[in-house]
């Protein structure tokens, strides 16, 4: 595998990096503008997804802190069969649920996914997330304006005998 | 006196040259031996990935003129190739020990 | 220097021990008897894992660990190989430039026949795997062959496996000395240690199925071919039998052979034959 | 080209269970390709499920959602034969939409 080391590659890398960041930013500007006209809470929580750790992400997303509650059932494997595809699901008996989010503490960016639950939609979600390494997994449920959470430890390592 | 001095100098220069050339020749010898062993292992269809990468490391070190490292790498490659040849020949019969009967 | 001599010493002593062990039995095992081998192979796993249902062995690691099985069942609701399956179905229906399709190359139009592959071709005197037959069909119809380790071949074999799901593996060994030799060659490859790790397929899949190799649970060798091709989360993509053999080799630091090499086709022949009677479960989803 | 969204919506009684699998690389922007260069971030940011003109379910996704993402939820009120509209947009401005009948 020939890697083009030296100044040329690094310059291209920086340019590429800059381009994609600009794109990200640009891509969102009009997006947020258009969606501003749509229902207010439809806005893509850009800021929250940029936060590195879990506490900042929750604050950016909801602006308040959560308290653990056994009414939030978080289901995830004890040892993930593969860090790239970890089946995670949550159900809750709380009512008037308006939002559910999943945060993977040890990931480069803690917030993984956030869902808006409309009136009449059952507060139970299953999805498949990526986990960089063994981590704390947090599910947040916003019910009737208050935040409730459940956490679970998930072990993640690579497989096989290495080669 | 001057003549002997010149002679001594010439000799010393020759020695140094041969010393440097010797390592390149040593490298070539060590590399060909390693390559022969690796070819034999490949012939037995039992080559190891580490033999191949060690041979490449030897070539790379030689290209950059570091013959000491190149010789060490070539010797390591040969040892690995020999081990894989030994594995192939001993497994010709040894596999039966694991067979489910 | 120290590690190398230790390695030589280690393999020397291992060889001596092995030689001592095989000496008495070498005389007994010269005639190749696939039927007895298959019975012994299946009984080994049935006795080692008495509470695993026989047909469950084809689910590999998931037959060995309940937590992993739950993760798998959740994935099976909408499996990641769904796209490969649909691509395979579409490719199967699209005619080649000369108007023919894969259906013209296979018995029963290629539907529900996967359980008979690989088979031994008495004319050519060698094992023909499903992947080899597919590429031969393409070449016979003027199309370029697919790579054995890439997605197109995996999609085709995924669709053909899907059409055979549940049918018992049904591999035949014709009464032909070359077929018996191919079976024996496959068996020898399966049990031979290779690579600097000095592992054979059996070191992992016979001696320690159900145990962890870092994050993964090792699958039992019985029925391991029944789930091919597999979608592996680790590759986040499809993998044919060839890709699995090649990657297993390089993990034990053995230089892989070319896909569809004799040894690979013969070991697939051996492993499929000894799993006769167990259902086809491909395409499979694996860690 | 076949849609990138596979949906299965089944209703029993008043509850409709929806499962969706979407074909998308979901690149995080942190992974290098074999030549050692960073693969730029390319991931679905928002996925909407609309029934009868109303968004019943909106997913905001980050880079930690798996490749070929999958999601399952259920909601009340719909009945067999109703139509469900599903659409996503990603950070590169890509998008796709499809409709599915509730079985």
TrEMBL record, chain A:
<protein>
    <submittedName>
        <fullName>Thiosulfate oxidation carrier protein SoxY</fullName>
    </submittedName>
</protein>
<dbReference type="InterPro" id="IPR038162">
    <property type="entry name" value="SoxY_sf"/>
</dbReference>
<dbReference type="InterPro" id="IPR016568">
    <property type="entry name" value="Sulphur_oxidation_SoxY"/>
</dbReference>
<dbReference type="InterPro" id="IPR006311">
    <property type="entry name" value="TAT_signal"/>
</dbReference>
<dbReference type="InterPro" id="IPR032711">
    <property type="entry name" value="SoxY"/>
</dbReference>
<feature type="domain" description="Ig-like SoxY">
    <location>
        <begin position="59"/>
        <end position="161"/>
    </location>
</feature>
<dbReference type="Pfam" id="PF13501">
    <property type="entry name" value="SoxY"/>
</dbReference>
Automatic annotation (TrEMBL), chain B:
<protein>
    <recommendedName>
        <fullName>SoxXA-binding protein SoxK</fullName>
    </recommendedName>
</protein>
<keyword id="KW-0732">Signal</keyword>
<feature type="signal peptide">
    <location>
        <begin position="1"/>
        <end position="21"/>
    </location>
</feature>
TrEMBL record, chain D:
<dbReference type="Pfam" id="PF08770">
    <property type="entry name" value="SoxZ"/>
</dbReference>
<dbReference type="InterPro" id="IPR013783">
    <property type="entry name" value="Ig-like_fold"/>
</dbReference>
<dbReference type="InterPro" id="IPR030995">
    <property type="entry name" value="SoxZ"/>
</dbReference>
<protein>
    <submittedName>
        <fullName>Thiosulfate oxidation carrier complex protein SoxZ</fullName>
    </submittedName>
</protein>
<dbReference type="InterPro" id="IPR014756">
    <property type="entry name" value="Ig_E-set"/>
</dbReference>
<feature type="domain" description="Sulphur oxidation protein SoxZ">
    <location>
        <begin position="6"/>
        <end position="100"/>
    </location>
</feature>
<dbReference type="InterPro" id="IPR014880">
    <property type="entry name" value="SoxZ_dom"/>
</dbReference>
């Amino acid at each position: 595998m020939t890697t083009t080391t030296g100044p040329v590659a690094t310059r291209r890398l920086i340019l590429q990096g800059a381009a994609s960041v600009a794109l990200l930013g640009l891509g969102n500007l009009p997006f947020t503008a258009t969606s501003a006209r749509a229902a207010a809470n439809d806005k893509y929580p850009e800021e929250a997804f940029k936060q590195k750790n879990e506490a900042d992400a929750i604050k950016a997303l909801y602006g308040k802190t959560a308290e653990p509650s056994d009414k939030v059932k978080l289901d995830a494997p004890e040892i993930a069969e593969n860090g790239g595809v970890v089946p995670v699901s949550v159900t809750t008996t709380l009512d008037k649920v308006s939002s559910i989010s999943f945060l993977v503490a040890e990931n480069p960016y803690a917030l993984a996914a956030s869902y808006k639950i409309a009136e009449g939609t059952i507060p139970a979600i299953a999805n498949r997330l990526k986990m960089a390494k063994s981590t704390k997994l947090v599910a947040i449920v916003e019910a009737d304006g208050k935040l409730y959470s459940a956490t679970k430890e998930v072990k993640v390592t690579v497989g096989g005998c290495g080669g | 006196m001057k003549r002997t001095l010149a002679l001594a100098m010439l000799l010393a220069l020759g020695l140094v040259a041969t010393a440097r050339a010797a390592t390149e020749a040593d490298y070539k010898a060590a590399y060909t031996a390693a390559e022969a062993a690796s070819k034999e292992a490949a012939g037995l269809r039992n080559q190891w990935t580490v033999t191949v990468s060690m041979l490449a490391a030897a070539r790379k070190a030689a290209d950059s003129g570091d013959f000491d490292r190149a010789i060490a790498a070539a010797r390591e490659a040969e040892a690995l190739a020999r081990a894989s040849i030994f594995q192939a020949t001993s497994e010709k019969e040894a596999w039966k020990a694991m067979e489910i009967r | 220097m120290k590690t190398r001599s230790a390695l030589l010493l280690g393999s020397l002593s291992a060889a001596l021990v092995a030689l001592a062990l095989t000496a008495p039995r070498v005389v007994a095992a010269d005639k190749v008897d696939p039927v007895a081998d298959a019975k012994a192979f299946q009984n080994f796993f049935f006795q080692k894992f008495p509470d695993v249902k026989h047909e469950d062995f084809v689910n590999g690691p998931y037959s060995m660990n309940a937590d992993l099985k739950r993760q798998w069942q959740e994935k099976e609701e909408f499996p990641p190989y769904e796209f490969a399956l649909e691509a395979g179905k579409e490719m199967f229906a699209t005619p080649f430039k000369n108007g023919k399709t894969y259906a013209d190359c296979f018995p029963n139009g290629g539907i529900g026949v996967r359980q008979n592959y690989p088979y031994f071709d008495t004319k050519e005197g060698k094992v023909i795997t499903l992947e080899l037959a597919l590429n031969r069909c393409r070449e016979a119809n003027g199309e370029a062959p697919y790579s054995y380790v890439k997605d197109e071949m995996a999609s085709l074999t995924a669709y053909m496996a899907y059409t055979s799901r549940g049918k018992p593996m049904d591999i035949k060994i014709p009464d032909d000395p070359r077929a018996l030799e191919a079976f024996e060659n496959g068996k020898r490859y399966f049990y031979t240690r290779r690579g600097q790790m000095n592992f054979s397929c059996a070191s992992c899949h016979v001696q320690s199925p159900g145990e962890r190799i870092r994050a993964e649970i090792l699958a039992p060798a019985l029925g391991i071919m029944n789930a091919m091709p597999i979608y592996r989360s680790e590759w986040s993509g499809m993998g044919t039998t060839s890709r699995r053999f090649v990657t297993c080799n390089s993990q034990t630091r053995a230089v892989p052979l070319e896909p569809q090499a004799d040894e690979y086709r013969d070991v697939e022949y051996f492993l499929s034959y000894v799993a006769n009677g167990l259902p086809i479960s491909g395409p499979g989803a694996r860690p | 080209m076949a849609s990138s969204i596979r949906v299965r919506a089944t209703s029993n009684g008043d509850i409709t269970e929806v499962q969706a699998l979407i074909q998308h690389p979901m690149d995080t922007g942190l992974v290098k390709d074999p030549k050692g260069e960073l693969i730029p971030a390319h991931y679905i940011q928002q996925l909407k499920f609309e029934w009868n003109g109303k968004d019943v379910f909106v997913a905001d996704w980050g880079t930690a959602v798996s490749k070929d993402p999958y999601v399952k939820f259920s909601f009340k009120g719909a009945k067999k034969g109703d139509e469900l509209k599903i659409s996503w947009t990603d950070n590169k401005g890509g998008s796709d939409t499809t409709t599915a009948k509730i079985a």
